[in-house]
């Protein structure tokens, strides 16, 4: 296998593992917060329905955690196996957040174990709720630290290079790099938002399937409220991220906006299809919007692709990913807003079938937006693995068996994906809320 | 003490922690599957489930901790071992993934079928085998560098008696460690039949475990005389380890103080493991990489050690809490509380 193929297969395998892991990791970060809120509401309002919500979410959550843990182990090892040169270089500079991420993960694992096995141990449910705080903190901190590592790849700093070696390493400076604040905030907000909409989807689906229990209505109201708050937050942070890009990674912004020529008062290109390399068709242009997005003033100059040599420009298809992410984000925000207004005005339409179907769609759509966003962020960094320092083709393994490993992991993810879905569906179908409520009444 | 020595000692300690905890876990899965196969499930399954459930996730963390730590302290290991281990480590990951997730699926998702019990139990034996390959490779002789590419010679690796000795050692010690622990656990649970069965397993695996461990030393004499010489210099550590082994088996034989027996066993393995580690010094991968060559910058080493201490201030109370709630909680073990 020549180097080009090894790089291609290494990229495909990393992308596959991350794409699969992100599904479980995102709910892994977001759901503990929702479980905590449900448990807290249950105690505050003395409402058994919320306690049951927390319980049932936890039961499903543990299945996703299991897959998240094993795929997380997989990506952790694969970084070393597939990108040894990168990890050797990066290990010198970003070992600290990587290390702290495992601590956070450890912390979460311990308390999740305790939480799961002490449902009936404490007389006082508030004690049990306290155990959820370290779970939620651990989950969010893992996301924070690992995103720091990723943001380092986009804006490396905190070291100098002399003869190919890293010297004068400053671990803290490497952690707190320029893209860190927006990336971390965006990852957290979208993880909470997506988890909330996924749980809302489940509630809406149960209602569509004929369960008219008040439990589902409470679940919907709670999850959509949380989802809306964080989707608005995600949009605001997304705007900051655009300003960060204009300042530090203009080639990424230019590629994702199809901004070919450097100009003042730049307009924003929405949708469209790219033909023959630089011909944009069927697009909508919003005047001045790109200048506002990039610098906050309508007349500011935005750097275009013309300022960069061709070999340093990321693939232009990331524009489509950007559109998918933003459209879904705006769509679910709007949906959440309509639901809450409808609820406030006591309108009937929010429990009509078409509207429930829209809510059902919001969860999977949010997950697609997460994936599109990550592909955008990662492909937008090409051709660099460490922007400006190490090119992707120089970082991959020289091993000959990468293609075989790709097939091995494709098989693994198919099995894990199907099995986790089957287990989750069976778990809740065989024990609907009505039965669980009846069982609890019967058993005391 | 130099930073690299602190780093490698801490990591070696962690690897040891993983080996003990994972051995119990892998062995427990195996004994559980074996009991289903021989229709003795009613005797030990309860005990094993009650132990495994709250800690299955924590076990995995130890492994992650070790490999993240070693790349942090010794970034060059990412380059050397990362390139070499693509296939063996990927296979381990797949096995760990199947094992970990199916445990959760069957325990929480009620995916009840003997097939999964077997898969869980028997895959647990392949994992130590595939992971222990790293120890073989670190002895040198299987890796060569050609056109600045690092290449692992699979043919030599798989035909070397040293490889198979280490694989067999990992299997016998997994079963031995696990059986001794579960004997103790079952006795705390006051579960007579389970204790008796596990005691039988512990005794029958004790001899193979000690024999294969001795066998490795003989193999090393052929494979890496330099390492062998340093091992012999540490003869007194191995002697202490052997005496501790005798104490453990004696206690189990006499049906006395199973708790003490397990603790003595941990010390037995700790001493042998550190003796092996010390004799391996200063090589991370013989003869290509030493710990001084592979070490990170001083600033990062200090940052990592600080993070480590801070992390431990957080983790130790948490681990104590989980021990108090489950593993050292008689009422829990005996099934009186959930």
Automatic annotation (TrEMBL), chain A:
Q: How does it sit in the membrane?
A: Multi-pass membrane protein
From the UniProt record, which GO molecular function terms apply?
A: electron transfer activity; heme binding; metal ion binding; oxidoreductase activity, acting on diphenols and related substances as donors, oxygen as acceptor
Q: Which GO terms describe its biological process?
A: aerobic electron transport chain
Which Pfam family, any one, appears in the UniProt record?
Cyt_bd_oxida_I
Q: Which GO terms describe its cellular component?
A: cytochrome complex; plasma membrane
Which segment of the chain is annotated as a signal peptide?
A: none
Q: State whether keyword Acyltransferase applies.
A: no
Location(s), subcellular: Cell membrane
Indicate what this protein is called per its UniProt record.
Cytochrome ubiquinol oxidase subunit I
Q: What is the organism field in this record?
A: Gracilibacillus oryzae
Automatic annotation (TrEMBL), chain B:
Q: Name one Pfam family in it.
A: Cyt_bd_oxida_II
- What does the UniProt entry say about where the protein is found? Cell membrane
Kindly give the membrane topology term recorded for this protein: Multi-pass membrane protein
One of the record's GO cellular component terms: plasma membrane
> What are the transmembrane regions?
6-34, 55-74, 80-98, 119-144, 164-189, 201-222, 234-253, 260-279, 299-327
**Which keywords fit this entry according to its UniProt record?**
Cell membrane, Membrane, Transmembrane, Transmembrane helix
Family (UniProt): Belongs to the cytochrome ubiquinol oxidase subunit 2 family.
* Protein name per UniProt: Cytochrome d ubiquinol oxidase subunit II
Recorded source organism is Gracilibacillus oryzae
